Amino acid sequence: MNTARPESVALFCLTPGGVALAQRLRSEFALDCFTSEKLLQPGFIPFGGSFAQTVEQAFSQYSALVFIAATGIVVRVIAPLVCDKMHDPAVVVMDERAEHVISLLSGHLGGANELTRHLAEILDSDPVITTATDVNQLAALDTLAAKLDATLLDFRQTVKTVNQMLVSQKRVGLWWDRDFAAHAKQYDTRGFIPVDDLGALPALDALVCVTLRDVLPAQTIPLFKLVPKRVIAGMGCRRDTPSQTVATLFSQQLAANHFDPLALRVIGSVTLKKDERALLDLAQHHQVPFEVFSVEQLAQHEHRFPASEFVRQTVGVGSVSQPAAWLLSHGNLVGTTLREQGVTITLGVIDRC
Fold first, then answer.
1. Which residue, 125, 131, 218, 324, could crosslink 234 as a Cys pair with Cβ 3.0–4.6 Å?
2. Whether the Cβ atoms of residue 205 and residue 166 lie closer than 8 Å to each other
3. Residues 150, 226 contacting (CB under 8 angstroms)
4. Of the residues 173, 202, 228, which one is the last residue of a structural domain?
5. What residue numbers bound the domain in which 78 lies?
């Protein structure tokens, strides 16, 4: 998924005026500036082959693209590249006199709206943002999800439904689980109706709940869970353990700790397991990274946990799942470690509010 805070920005300029404006922006924040050979300045990158070819490469390599060019030119060059709002980078367009900065693509999830406002502030320009929630000075569910690094079941349709309800002046409640309530004021929630108690709802048309829980009290109105990706899993298993066995035990461990599977952020293990099919399959199924640690890294925290001589002889360290979970969660482990059928699973939670 793309991000609401672009980490890598490519800027394209096609005219001498555009190059001058790019020079001004380079002094304010980090970006890679691309231009033609004849306009090349120190620190700029020449187009590789052609303008269109360079844009095509950048579209998949950068989280945001900024063009100092006519909107029509930009639309034509990115049209064959556009996929969907979940993966497209932010695209922002501005004129070389910096009168207008336009959020063109991926306004919410990609962060184009936020980047547009930032650039307009630097240049004292007019930000042009046309997304319905922003025009109506309302929060957007996809923006909130991106800021929280959270996801939803049937993300695309749920975002469309909730945002449409907001701009249609429907009453959409927003409830924060206790782990997140203290940080709620950090986020843009304009248009949502605050909810403090799931057992005593005000009059609402729908409810959004920010939570890691797998189950919430049943409601008589549509309920949508916004699930921050905060749960980590340290894991170990015997070589060639069946993928289904690992998947079943992992589901049991999540359920035992009342975590929604969508809350999973990363799975970790020891380097020896980097090619373990069951762990790779599990990470792929949940669409999360699989991170491995060296024996030396795990050994630094081995003293905190019970050790197994069998595991030490096999792996080189007396415990795998617990030290891995400790490293991934910065020491914030939860529940007890599952040990069944040669599989160990330790869960933790990270704080990214």
1. 324
2. no
3. yes
4. 228
5. 9-130
CB 74 within 8 A of CB 20: no
Q: Is residue 272 part of a domain?
A: yes
b/e burial code for range 205-239 (CB count within 10 A of at least 16 → b): ebbbbbbbebeeeeeeeebbbbbbbbbbbbbbbee
136 occurs within a structural domain: no
102 plus 15 within the same structural domain: yes
* pTM summary value: 0.80
Beta strand segments in 106-201, E: 126-128, 150-151, 172-176, 192-195
